[in-house]
What does this fold into?
Amino acid sequence: QVQLVQSGAEVKKPGASVKVSCKASGYTFTSYDINWVRQATGQGLEWMGWMNPNSGNTGYAQKFQGRVTMTRNTSISTAYMELSSLRSEDTAVYYCATGSGNWFDPWGQGTLVTVSS
Amino acid sequence: SYELTQPPSVSVSPGQTASITCSGDKLGDKYACWYQQKPGQSPVLVIYQDSKRPSGIPERFSGSNSGNTATLTISGTQAMDEADYYCQAWDSGGVVFGGGTKLTVL
It folds into this structure.
């Protein structure tokens, strides 16, 4: 079955960067876009951007432009999301998600990123 | 920027019908989908392309989208349906989520 498995929790200091991975299995990795969504504790879902694993093309939400980079390694079916210049407001669970259309199914299990001095 | 508005909370008695709305400018001209999220879990797609159910989603979940409002309807609501629900659509700027609705079954 289609599955996305993300890397483990991270603790970072303000100003640092974090790189979260998302390993896909159960389908052809290059067939569907990978999207990244984050959720602060007790808050709603916030879309960060998308990446086409085949071409490497990306599209980022305006809020994250200049701070986020989405990449991939097709040889190991893994997508990455790197967020730089971290601040306390970036503390959240970060999800990757895929899907064959304008919807996300399935989602990864989530990666907690804590930004604290 | 495009916005989707959901009621913060909806309550329903077991066995009754719950309706959760999602409002946005000319939302009916776009495709809407819905996710269910239980505490500590990742979101799960329950409706896509306005009214289609993914494999494994019970028939009691249905959706519609017209005008400025998309609606998720849960018929014969069960205790296990208590969760947060989010609507989602695509706009020129990318993906937009509603603020989420907490469904309480009591």
